[in-house]
Design goal:
The complex is a heterodimer.
Chain A lengths: L2 E5 L2 E4 L5 E8 L5 E7 L5 E9 L2 E4 L5 E7 L2 E6 L8 E8 L10 E2 L3 E5 L1
Parallel strand pairs in A: 2-11
Antiparallel strand pairs in A: 1-3, 3-8, 4-5, 4-9, 5-6, 7-8, 9-10, 9-11
Chain B lengths: L4 E3 L2 E5 L4 E6 L4 E9 L6 E6 L5 E4 L2 E5 L5 E6 L8 E9 L8 E2 L3 E6 L1
Parallel strand pairs in B: 2-11
Antiparallel strand pairs in B: 1-3, 3-8, 4-5, 4-9, 6-7, 7-8, 9-10, 9-11
The chains are: A mainly beta, B mainly beta.
Chain lengths: 115, 113
């Protein structure tokens, strides 16, 4: 069965510090991968998605970036965090193609607090 | 971008009551999905709908893909305290990218025991 991992689970960082959040998926190959941010107030904002190694699409211009160095690894980064970067970051995956390709499955999330 | 109107924003109900929430869009969707998010966790997929008019159940949950393909509803029967959480609808827009979903803003459900 497939599983998705995110770490760290929680993170407190000062303004201006760098960020690296990691997401890995097990039990599948060539998944589509997604990064979402969820601010207090619940809505899910799509930040980046990737359909393959090295392929990144950005949805919202900001000081975050994403990379996919391996098939089942997705990394969210920032060189300098802003207060507004605080939130709950969720990684998700879905099958590349197939009848259920729209079904996204989420990781446990990382709670980021920028002080 | 595309937006989904999800209502109600929040609900306070007594244990045992039935619950209904819905999502509407001004454009056609190919897929409707319903998720539940517990506090501090990632959303979990409850039901996926792929055909207009489709009615699908998962235990006490029932969801339908509207005939017009512009709406969907989720019903929860005989609510219990563990039903507490945020429920999201999500859809894949007809003619849009095959890789992205549009999410509603969620319905916060509180169940009083």
């Amino acid at each position: 069965s497939q599983t998705i991992h995110q770490w760290p689970a929680t993170l407190v960082q000062p303004v201006g510090s760098p960020l690296s959040l990691e997401c890995t998926v097990e039990g599948t190959s060539n998944p589509n991968l997604y990064w979402y941010r969820q601010a207090a107030g619940r809505g899910l904002q799509l930040l980046f998605y990737s359909v393959g190694i090295g392929q990144i699409s950005s949805e919202v211009p900001q000081n975050l970036s994403a990379s996919r160095p391996q098939d089942r690894q997705f990394i969210l980064s920032s060189k300098k965090l802003l207060l507004s970067d605080s939130g709950f970051y969720l990684c998700a995956w879905n099958v590349h193609g197939g009848t259920s390709h729209n079904e996204q499955f989420f990781g446990p999330g990382t709670r980021l607090t920028v002080l | 971008g595309q937006q989904l109107n999800q209502s109600p924003q929040s609900m306070f109900i007594q244990e045992g009551e039935d619950v209904s929430m819905n999502c509407t869009s001004s454009s056609i969707f190919n897929t409707w999905l319903w998720y539940k998010q517990d506090p501090g966790e990632g959303p979990v997929l409850l039901i996926a709908l792929y055909k207009a008019g489709e009615l699908t159940s998962n235990g006490r949950l029932t969801a339908q893909f509207g005939i017009t393909r512009k709406d969907s509803f989720l019903n929860i029967s005989a609510s219990i305290p563990s039903d507490v959480g945020i429920y999201f609808c999500a859809g894949q827009h007809s003619g849009g990218s095959n890789y992205k979903l549009t999410f509603g803003k969620g319905t916060l459900l509180t169940v009083n025991p």
